[in-house]
Each structure stands twice: as structure tokens, then as C-alpha cells.
Design a protein that fits this description.
Radius of gyration: 20 Å
Helix content: over 70%
Number of strands: 0
Largest sheet: none
Structural class: mainly alpha
Distance between the termini: 46 Å
Number of domains: 1
Number of helices: 13
Length: about 400
């Protein structure tokens, strides 16, 4: 009797199952790393290339990315849950590269705003699709560790992307730095295109009327609001920290992101392990308090040391909240609805960019950078109150050893 040979399955084309040691998980992490290299280039060079413009103009252009994402993210979630997630990832990667080419072609703020809007939609497509896909490669009992490792990919980008972009802009031009960002986005597209979804949407299911689709995930909305109190502070830092550092002569603002990324990298892994073993609440509560302290330090910074201490605390805080909130959402959401859940979760980034960039820009224009950072520093304390009232009691699942 002749046996049918068992095909050797390529990890790049036919993934075996959830595993943190698989090539597929590694490629997903590499793809998000490359994508955030491009993002790290934009967060420093977009505002600094507009340093001669009014603060409210800088805020609008910097926050345009979040504004576009905020408006389209619910639609992105529906798309990602209704058909092949790989397709939406590819569209997002290509569009991001186009946006960076656009930045490099003109530094006029209103031309940049147009491409900033494209960037916002593209980022929603790429990150939401990849988040929903990578969740299928993480074993449930190690969810916090897996998500922490995956998100460490973009934290690693913060170690060098921002200071590298400052060096390229100083040595050559802002345009050259943006073209480097386009190359990084293109590489993210190539690597991300290899990743496959282990739990894809059922495209043969009965179509659901648009009005009945889950535009905002019920399992994700409250955790996402808690996360929003963090992302608004990040939006403010991305839009105005480089200008604040320049005004106070605090040194290369790219170093802030290097320190921030270093502590963010370690915090994401440790937060995931702690959350798997002891519950998400043990991580979220101190992290929210730490973020408030970080913003108050930034507001009062008079030396580069104070600036970098603020960055270190902020990185730990963001890593703890981000990993824990995303793990909490995946814990509670069926695979078929992860696109909507991840869209709701990532919408917090978009709304935070608008609140921390565009809206705070008007406040800063009328007051000062310091007052603006104190104001947003109060938000994590509000997130702490919401978490304790609405989420903490339900965080009782024992998830197994890390």
C-alpha cells in the first residue's frame, strides 16, 4: 500500500498553529517593527519640519493622521472581519509608503496634511489587520507574553528610528528622511505580506446588513477608553515634545524617544508575563499612575536629564497599559470579531492623536507647552478611576503560567 507523502508545509505559506516560536509570529513582529520605523521617522520630522508655522498649524498636521484614522477605523474593523485580512494589510502597507513619498515631495503644511490623512487611513488598515492576524498565532495561556513580544517590535523601532531621522534630516534634508520612511514602510509591506491568518473570517457566511454590523466592539469599548487616556498623552508628546525641548534647550529630542523606546521594550514583555500570572489589574493600576508622573516631569523639565527620566517612566507606563489592555480585549473577544475589537482598540490611538495634537495645539497656542503637558497628565488618573469602577472586578481569570 502506497502512502501519500505528507507535504512539508512552509511556515511562510501554511502556518501550523499558535506558537510563539513559529516563523509566522517572528515575521509578524518584524513587519510591525519595520512599520513603526517609518512611523518613528514621521513623529519627529513632521512637527520639526513645520517649526516656522504656528502651533495650531503644527497640531492640525501632526494630528491629521489620528483624525483620518478616527473617522475610518470602524469601517476598517468591518472590512477586516468580512474578508481576507491579508488583503487589507497589503493595501495599508502600500498606501503608507505613498504617504511618505508625499511628505518628501513637499513640506508645505497643507500638502503634508493631505498625505497625513492618507497615512492615517493606511495605518488603520495595516495595524488592525496585522493585530487580528497575529492574535491567531498566540496560545491563549501565553497571551500576555505573546502580545508583549509582538508589541516589542514597534518599541524596538523607537530605540533608533527617531534619532536616526533627526540625523538624516540634519545631514541631508527632511525630504531625505521621509524617503527613508517610505523605504521602511515598503519593507513592512513585503514582510507582512508573508504572514497568514490562522483564524480567517468565514467568507461563505450569510452577509450581514451594514446597519447590523459591529462598528464598535462591545468587548473592547471600555478598555479602549482607558487606553485613550494614555494615547492622548502620547499624541501630545509626539506633536509638541520636540518643540518643547527646543524651546527649553533640552538637547536632541530624538533621545527622548530612544529612552522611551528602551523602557517600553522591557515593560511590554514583563507586563505581559505579570498579567498572565497575576491578572491585568496588577499592571494597569500602577502604570496609569506612572504616566501621570511622567507628564508632570516633562512639563517642568529644565535639564536633559529630567526630560529623559520622564521618557523612561512614560515608556514603562505605556508598555504596561498597552499590553494589558490589548490582552484583556483578546481574552474577551471571539476570533470572528477580532477585527472590530482591534479597530476599536487602535481607534484610541487615533482619537488620542487628535486630542493630544490638534485640540491641545489650540490650548498650547493660548498658554504654554508646560501647561498643556500638565493638562494631559491628569487624563491617566481619570483612566484609573474608570478602570477600577468598570473593569477591575472582572479581571479574575487565572491565565496560567507565563
Amino acid at each position: 500500500m502506497t502512502q501519500t507523502p505528507i507535504p512539508v508545509e512552509s511556515a511562510g505559506r501554511m502556518p501550523q498553529g499558535p506558537s510563539l516560536r513559529s516563523l509566522q509570529f517572528f515575521l509578524a513582529t518584524l513587519a510591525i517593527h519595520l512599520y513603526f520605523v517609518s512611523y518613528g521617522i514621521s513623529i519627529v520630522n513632521v512637527p520639526t519640519s513645520l517649526s516656522n508655522e504656528a502651533d495650531w498649524v503644527v497640531g492640525i498636521v501632526a494630528g491629521g493622521l489620528g483624525f483620518a484614522g478616527m473617522l475610518t477605523r470602524p469601517l476598517v474593523g468591518v472590512w477586516v472581519d468580512s474578508s481576507a485580512r491579508e488583503k487589507w494589510l497589503k493595501i495599508g502597507g502600500i498606501a503608507t509608503a505613498i504617504a511618505f513619498v508625499g511628505y518628501g515631495l513637499s513640506l508645505d503644511p497643507w500638502v503634508m496634511l493631505f498625505f497625513r490623512l492618507i497615512h492615517g487611513v493606511a495605518m488603520g488598515l495595516f495595524t488592525t489587520a496585522l493585530l487580528a492576524m497575529v492574535a491567531s498565532h498566540i496560545p491563549a495561556e501565553r497571551r500576555g507574553v505573546g502580545i508583549g513580544l509582538y508589541q516589542s517590535g514597534n518599541a524596538l523601532a523607537q530605540l533608533y528610528a527617531a534619532p536616526m531621522s533627526v540625523a538624516v534630516a540634519d545631514r541631508f534634508s527632511f525630504e531625505a528622511a521621509f524617503f527613508v520612511g517610505a523605504a521602511a514602510a515598503g519593507l513592512a509591506f513585503v514582510v507582512g505580506s508573508i504572514v497568514r491568518d490562522l483564524e480567517p473570517p468565514d467568507e461563505n457566511q450569510e452577509p450581514v446588513a451594514w446597519g447590523q454590523r459591529e462598528w464598535v466592539s462591545k468587548t473592547a469599548i471600555t478598555p479602549a477608553i482607558v487606553f485613550l487616556t494614555m494615547t492622548t498623552t502620547v499624541g501630545a508628546i509626539n506633536a509638541f515634545m520636540p518643540l518643547h525641548a527646543e524651546e527649553r534647550v533640552l538637547g536632541n529630542p530624538g533621545l527622548y524617544y530612544s529612552v522611551w523606546g528602551s523602557t517600553l521594550l522591557g515593560a511590554r514583555f514583563l507586563a505581559g508575563a505579570a498579567g498572565d500570572r497575576f491578572g491585568r489589574t496588577t499592571v494597569v493600576v500602577p502604570a496609569l499612575i506612572a504616566e501621570a508622573i511622567s507628564l508632570f516631569l516633562l512639563a517642568t523639565a529644565e535639564t536633559q536629564l529630567m526630560l529623559l527620566v520622564s521618557a523612561a517612566i512614560g515608556g514603562v507606563a505605556l508598555g504596561g497599559v498597552q499590553v494589558s489592555v490589548m490582552s484583556l480585549i483578546v481574552d474577551r473577544t471571539p476570533a470572528a470579531r477580532r477585527g472590530a475589537a482591534m479597530a476599536t482598540y487602535t481607534m484610541a490611538w487615533d482619537v488620542g492623536a487628535v486630542g493630544g495634537g490638534v485640540l491641545l495645539g489650540f490650548v498650547i497656542d493660548a498658554t504654554s507647552y508646560s501647561f498643556g503637558f500638565v493638562l494631559v497628565g491628569l487624563l491617566p488618573l481619570g483612566g484609573l478611576a474608570l478602570y477600577l469602577l468598570r473593569i477591575a472586578r472582572g479581571d479574575t481569570i487565572r491565565r496560567g503560567p507565563a
